[in-house]
Amino acid sequence: MTQTQASAANSQLHKLLVQVAGEKAAAELFTMIKVEDVLLAEPAGEQVSRLVLAQAMNMLLFAKNLDAVPEGKRYVADKLAAGGQVVFDHGALRTVAAANTGALPQGELAFKRVLEPLGFAVADVYPLPRLKMTGRAYCHQDAPEQVAQFFVSELHVDQFSPAFQAAVDNVVSTSRDPLSTADKALLATLSDNRELPFADAASLLPKLVGCFDVQHATPTLADYHTLLQESAEMAWISTEGNAFNHATDHVADVFATADELRAKGQPIKDKVEVSASGRVRQTAFKAAQVEREFIDADGQRVSRIVPGSFYEFITRDRYTDEAGNDKLDLRFDSSNAQGIFKMTAAAC
């Protein structure tokens, strides 16, 4: 056993993942995802810090995305077979700012209430005008370069037609809240104390992961088509909800990665998106095609093939800030994001 493996095995992070996911799954997560030493420094004990709980959630969410994206799963398996690991950069999810979202808080508020107690804070806001959305990057305050960020986008329903707004209401007004009163109390304690007793953290962790899912009822086929006419993003939300629309691997050279995957015949995006600064470069697999249920005009359940989630690649350069500090460029780019979002639209 190497020193790193020993550190992982003795860490609070390992103990928590074993408790929630089991020994085998925890071992697979540590094999698959590169975990920095700062995230292993907390020894197994009676209290779980917000940093460790956030990392545990991120690792489980990454694995959940792979289960939804066969191309991503195959890529990661090949990378592991070659002796590599994934550097989890960020996950992205979509929310809806609508008048009636049922029991679920509107838009980004559904996740702000989860991410902030875990130690994440909004680092930047990114207008996405072509999509009639706004994106917010949530970065972890305790270990910004070591913990994957969240890109939370919010669709502004009031900017669309009345027919579209009615279809949105039909879909999201049925939303349930995946968090119980007890879960919210634990989040409040975590926010105040920056840690939870181990048993409480282990109880809360699966509920946090469950927030990244579909919370509303099965949509009608008519509503889906109405949404699709004006917003591929909202049509996607109607079938996939608040699941990760993508998880992202930080690679050394995204151009080389894209060329290699293209040569293998993998469904990679034609273009690499480059930020205005030139320091952030992104591309992605095209969205997985998934079978989803709808309610037809006769009230019967029918299945259709629609775009699901996808897997992304990013390269970030380091730079020197105005104070002379060496930093990894953790920012996003509105143009890049809107280009990447087309992955779910192009597969429609």
UniProtKB/TrEMBL annotation:
Belongs to the 2-oxoadipate dioxygenase/decarboxylase family. Signal peptide: none annotated. It comes from Vogesella indigofera (Pseudomonas indigofera). InterPro entries: HGLS. SMART domains: DUF1338 (SM01150). Its cofactor is Fe(2+). Pfam families: HGLS. GO terms for molecular function: dioxygenase activity. Keywords: Dioxygenase, Iron, Oxidoreductase. Its EC number is 1.13.11.93. The lineage of its organism: Bacteria, Pseudomonadati, Pseudomonadota, Betaproteobacteria, Neisseriales. This is 2-oxoadipate dioxygenase/decarboxylase.
